[in-house]
């Protein structure tokens, strides 16, 4: 099958009958790709009822069988990876190449395989003459997974892989901007999973609101904006659903004095511009010591000006459009405000209409005051503000003076100095001489308004479980 007929075959599985549903545009060309179902709250209630009915049987299959089925689901994703990557590239905008669509499909498979094979053992709490007490982890029930539009497939897998592994069933509500690729991936996984274990319900924001408030939802895995996350916390007062909240960030990087700019420029660039900046844990502010400032700015501007941007299906491109108009408007507004504040646009600083409606040139903004909106707010796009500092303590204070704390990074030619400095960052993760790298066994989560709860690895399995203490007689009998 050609790529376009393979994408059409995927769409045929998920599209509603002719004339129904919502047209979803190609992020780059704005042509319609296909139609997504617009399901109702009644459809959602039905899906949750089916997932609830399926859950005991899924749990009863046991870890070994679930593991086999999840590995088979990962194989199914691999078998459809190229078609899914094409659909994702068109719907989300991210190019096939670079750390983008094909990379995202590879991550889906890798994460799911790790979930399938990671074991969460009971924890022996006391084992003496009188008492044997263990903490065991059991399925929570029905998990609601609510996702964003920036890494729609990978984040869905992060949410559903551990839950399925632990014996939960899952109802997924994809972002209304990227429903097609998520529904297509779920359909591929459902080739091998039992019925009703994994159900997608696509619709408007009210579906997310109802999912998070539903009395039969035991746990909500949410990734998205802090504003929506707060609403989910409010909803959880009713059903007391457990929550994992992965929300907005405004990650800072700090380049310490004495760092070789040439050695770090490429990694700095991709730390900020991965997925054209539309990444939760991308570097969104860079603090650079005065002694290396000009060299770092020039090196980053050189890369930004030369990296190919355009339609994601063109194999040469590694940067794409903003995914949607509201996000394009946020980036434009923040860069215009930076100009008005006297910041220096080293490269970019404007839209790229010749590429398409939602393209914005990779932008490096230098000599920007720390209190400018582009520094203080999450831009979520291809525009990096670089702040000059002379006093290291002040740089850390400025980096930490925001109410979010997802990731952060410290850059230095002296790894010891970087490690010493790293823990001064107020963030869920701090990287040394890189930014944004994730691993399926290394927990990930935010502090402050970036959320709570951990994903990945053994901690991720715990977060979709409920605990039970089993307490019995000790060795004396
Ligand atoms: P968003 O909050 O607008 O939407 C996220 C999801 O929530 C969508 O599926 C939406 O339909 C749903 N939703 C809307 N209203 C709801 C409600 N009242 N109750 C329940 N669900 C509701 O976020 P977005 O614009 O899609 O994503 C961008 C944001 O996500 C950025 O702030 C980014 O930093 C953040 N993000 C965080 C991470 C992370 O891991 N921390 C990862 C990716 C994105």
Structure description:
With 477 residues, this protein is of the alpha/beta class. The protein folds into two domains: 3-247 and 450-469, Aldehyde Dehydrogenase, Chain A, domain 1; 251-432, Aldehyde Dehydrogenase, Chain A, domain 2. The chain has helices at 3-14, 41-60, 62-79, 81-92, 101-117, 152-166, 179-189, 205-213, 226-239, 261-273, 290-306, 325-340, 373-376, 392-400, 415-422, 457-463; strands at residues 22-25, 32-36, 123-127, 131-139, 142-146, 169-173, 198-200, 219-223, 242-246, 251-255, 283-289, 344-347, 363-366, 383-389, 404-405, 407-411, 429-432, 447-448, 465-473. A seven-stranded mixed beta sheet has the order 12-13-14-11-10-16-17, sandwiched between helices. Strands 7-6-5-8-9 form a five-stranded parallel beta sheet, sandwiched between helices. A three-stranded antiparallel beta sheet has the order 3-4-19. A hairpin with a 6-residue loop joins strand 1 and strand 2. Helix 4 packs across helix 5 (101-117) and helix 4 packs antiparallel against helix 7. The longest helix is centred in the first third of the chain and has 20 residues, at 41-60. The protein is globular and about 70 Å long. The mean pLDDT is 97. The structure holds nicotinamide-adenine-dinucleotide (NAD). Nicotinamide-adenine-dinucleotide is lined by residues 146-150, 155, 173, 175-176, 205, 208-209, 212, 223-225, 228, 231-232, 246-249, 280, 378, 380, 406, 446, 450.
Notable features of this structure?
Aldehyde Dehydrogenase, Chain A, domain 2; 477 residues; binds nicotinamide-adenine-dinucleotide; seven-stranded mixed β-sheet; Aldehyde Dehydrogenase, Chain A, domain 1; globular; five-stranded parallel β-sheet; 16 helices; alpha/beta
């Amino acid at each position: 099958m050609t790529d376009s007929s393979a994408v059409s075959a995927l769409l045929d599985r998920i599209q509603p009958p002719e004339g129904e549903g919502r047209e979803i545009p190609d992020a780059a060309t704005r042509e319609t790709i296909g139609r997504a179902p617009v399901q109702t709250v009644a459809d959602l209630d039905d899906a949750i009822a089916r997932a609830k009915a399926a859950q005991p049987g899924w749990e009863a299959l046991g870890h070994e069988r679930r593991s086999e089925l999840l590995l088979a689901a990962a194989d199914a994703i691999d078998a459809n990876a190229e078609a899914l990557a094409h659909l994702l590239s068109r719907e989300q905008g991210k190019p096939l190449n670079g750390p983008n669509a094909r990379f995202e499909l590879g991550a889906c498979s890798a994460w799911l395989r790790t979930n399938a094979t990671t074991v969460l053992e009971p924890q022996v709490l006391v084992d003496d003459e009188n008492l044997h007490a263990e903490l065991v982890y059991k399925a929570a029930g029905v998990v609601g997974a609510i996702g964003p539009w920036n890494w729609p497939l990978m984040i869905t897998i992060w949410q559903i892989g551990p839950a399925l592994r632990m014996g939960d069933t899952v109802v997924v509500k994809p972002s209304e901007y990227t429903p097609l690729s998520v529904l297509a991936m779920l359909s591929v996984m459902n080739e091998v999973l039992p019925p009703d274990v994994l159900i997608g319900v696509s619709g408007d924001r009210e579906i997310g609101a109802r999912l998070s408030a539903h009395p039969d939802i035991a746990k909500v895995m949410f990734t998205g904006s802090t504003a929506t996350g707060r609403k989910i916390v409010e909803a959880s007062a009713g059903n007391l659903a457990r929550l994992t909240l992965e929300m907005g960030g405004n990650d800072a990087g700090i380049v310490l004095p004495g760092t070789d700019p040439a050695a770090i420029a490429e990694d700095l660039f991709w730390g900020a511009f991965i997925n054209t900046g539309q990444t939760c844990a991308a570097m969104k502010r860079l603090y650079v010591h005065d002694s290396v400032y000009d060299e770092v700015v020039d090196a980053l501007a050189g890369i930004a000006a030369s990296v190919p941007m355009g339609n994601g299906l063109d194999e040469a491109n590694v940067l794409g459009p903003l995914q949607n108009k509201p996000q394009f408007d946020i980036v434009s507004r923040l860069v215009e405000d930076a100009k008005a504040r006297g910041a220096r646009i080293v490269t970019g600083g404007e839209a790229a209409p010749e590429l398409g409606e939602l393209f914005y040139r990779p932008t490096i903004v230098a000599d920007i005051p720390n209190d400018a909106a582009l520094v203080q707010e999450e831009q979520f796009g291809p525009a990096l503000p670089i702040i000059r500092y002379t006093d290291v303590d002040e740089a850390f204070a400025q980096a930490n003076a925001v109410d979010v704390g997802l990731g952060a990074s410290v850059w230095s030619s002296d790894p010891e100095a970087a490690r010493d400095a790293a823990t001064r960052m107020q963030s869920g993760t701090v990287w040394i001489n890189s930014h944004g790298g994730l691993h399926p066994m290394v927990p990930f989560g935010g502090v402050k308004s970036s959320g709570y709860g951990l994903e990945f690895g053994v901690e991720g399995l715990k977060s979709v479980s409920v605990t039970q203490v089993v307490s019995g007689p000790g060795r004396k009998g």
